[in-house]
Amino acid sequence: MTKYSILDLVRIRENGNAKISLNNARNLARQAEQWGYTRFWMAEHHNMPGIASAATSVAIGHVAEGTEKIRVGAGGIMLPNHSPLVIAEQFGTLDALFPGRIDLGLGRAPGTDQLTLRALRRHPGSADNFPQDVLELQALLGPVQPDQRIRAVPGANSHVPLWILGSSTFGAAMAGEFGLPYAFASHFAPDYLYTALETYRSRFKPSEQQATPYCMMGINIIVAPSDEEAEFLASTQRMSVTNLLRGDRGLSKPPIADINTYWSIDERVQAQRMLAMSVVGSPDTVREKLEGILTQTRVNELMIVSDIYDHSLRLQSYEYIAQIMQALNEKKQVNEA
């Protein structure tokens, strides 16, 4: 069985605002738990007018309050931006409010630009301490030790599950050595996907949290009744990536009929490389392509981005995806019987 989950970028649309985007995220999560999705993650990004999840732990609480059973978490928290104690307290508080439903994915990238790093009071070399910070955070979320003077309250003894996120072999090797589940950011940086998965699996050492390797991959999936409609809807994400290449972090744009009128040839090449791990089309098209990807990667779980401008059409896409995943899982069970 391949689990399927959602990464919501909490995009702020043109003619929208942060409140609408956060409420849409909550609404999507409420629907997703009815469709069989395992978890709903949001990510830490700063100084980006088009993304509403900068205060990630607050956004997680908003979504968790509006749902009942789906796991909610960070995919991820950029740990070098924070002290491990603060993150332990934040996610310990979330776990106290929503016990057994909180995930904590950790990345070492800043999630922003150099100027914003200074505003965050982030030391330029803080990413070098990422492995040590993860271990410190893990200890703060674990059992209180004799004579331990610094405690996360709430947080201690919560054992909030940690994930390592990455887009290179560094995070893969680290996740394997620490015995933690690993999520690869192939939805925007797919180049090292297969190398990273192999590195993680070969380096994995069992831990108290994870006895066997557990791999997740990010993937962009957009489903609509026809291939043509899905390609039209996908232009929103393609414009957003093009804008990032231009240094523009603005609002999500409505889809356009011909994306080639928007990007240059060089931008198209760069954007298509970043979005190479994308499946766009009708349910039949997506099911066929997705089955091949799952066979090739052998991942345990998909973390799915369906970046569509219209919220109702985004809901439709995620419902289609759930139906596709259920069909593929049923087929796999029959074949293995």
From TrEMBL:
Luciferase-like domain: residues covered: 3-298
Entry keyword set: Monooxygenase, Oxidoreductase
Alphabetical list of Gene3D superfamilies matching this protein: Luciferase-like domain
InterPro entries per the UniProt record, alphabetical: Bact_Lucif_Oxidored, CmoO-like, Luciferase-like_dom, Luciferase-like_sf
One MF term in the entry's GO annotations: monooxygenase activity
Listed GO CC annotations: cytosol
Pfam families associated with the record: Bac_luciferase (PF00296)
Presence of the UniProt keyword Oxidoreductase in the record: yes
Family as reported in the entry's similarity comment: To bacterial alkanal monooxygenase alpha and beta chains.
Protein name: Luciferase-like monooxygenase
Naturally occurring in which organism (per UniProt): Neopusillimonas maritima
Lineage summary: Bacteria, Pseudomonadati, Pseudomonadota, Betaproteobacteria, Burkholderiales
